């Protein structure tokens, strides 16, 4: 099926990168997996997929933990109608956890996801990496380099901060993780809230509501460029990546 669709243009390429580090137990991993599947059942999300110019998107699921542990759990999957969406839900529902290393390497999660985007059999102007996590970057290469690389390549990095262990994690993700035009942070106060948070996040990403019109999320647009260690501009600054 992928071979037949090689080079097909879709409205969005979306990499869903979920945290599988040691801080995430089995139940919490299941809540992430089930949350994505639940979101794809949502009528609003299905309508948003069909409403784009190409009436289709493609998704991939990455599991990540330490700098040496990233797995493409769900290869690129075309969503272009009820049948393909239902098939994707079934596959996501059966995804086994492939990594559980102790560290949290957000930098290499972004870098690996950029490679996944490069290898997509589909084409899209909008390309998004969706990082879900419950902790700060503490392992691997420099995070700033990877987020700026993503922005320079026209890729948006959004984040879903799960606040069960650190109540200011969304602020950290705003300042250190998200990048690119229209980037934003969604919050889940704890893992049981992940289902609703990932639905809101995916709906906003698929619909592409301008940040000035999207309520209830933090940080509006990422401003990753720095001078002398200080951020330029305000949280409302918008820019278009090269």
TrEMBL record:
CDD domains: vWFA. Residues 13-206 form the VWFA domain. Gene3D superfamilies: von Willebrand factor, type A domain (3.40.50.410). This is DUF1194 domain-containing protein. It comes from Marivibrio halodurans.
């Amino acid at each position: 099926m992928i071979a037949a669709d090689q080079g097909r243009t879709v409205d969005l390429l979306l990499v869903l990168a979920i945290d599988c580090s040691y801080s995430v137990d089995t139940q919490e991993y299941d809540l992430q997996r089930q949350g994505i599947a639940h979101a794809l059942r949502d009528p609003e999300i299905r309508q948003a997929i069909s409403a784009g110019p190409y009436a289709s998107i493609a998704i991939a699921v990455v599991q990540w933990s330490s700098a040496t542990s990233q797995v493409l759990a769900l290869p690129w999957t075309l969503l272009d109608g009820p049948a393909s969406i239902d098939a994707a839900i079934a596959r996501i529902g059966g995804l086994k956890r492939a990594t559980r290393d102790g560290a949290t390497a957000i930098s290499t999660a972004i870098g690996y996801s950029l490679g996944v985007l490069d290898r997509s059999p589909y084409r899209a102007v909008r390309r998004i990496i969706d990082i879900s996590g419950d902790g700060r970057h503490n392992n691997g290469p420099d995070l700033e380099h990877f987020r700026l690389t993503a922005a320079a390549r026209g890729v948006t990095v959004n984040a879903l901060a799960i606040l069960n262990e650190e109540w200011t994690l969304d602020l950290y993700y705003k300042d250190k993780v998200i990048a690119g035009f229209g980037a934003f942070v969604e919050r889940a106060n704890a893992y049981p809230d992940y289902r609703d948070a990932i639905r809101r996040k995916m709906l906003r990403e698929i619909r592409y509501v301008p940040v000035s019109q999207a309520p209830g999320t933090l940080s509006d647009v990422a401003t990753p460029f720095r001078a002398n260690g200080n951020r330029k501009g305000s949280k409302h600054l918008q820019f278009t990546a090269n």
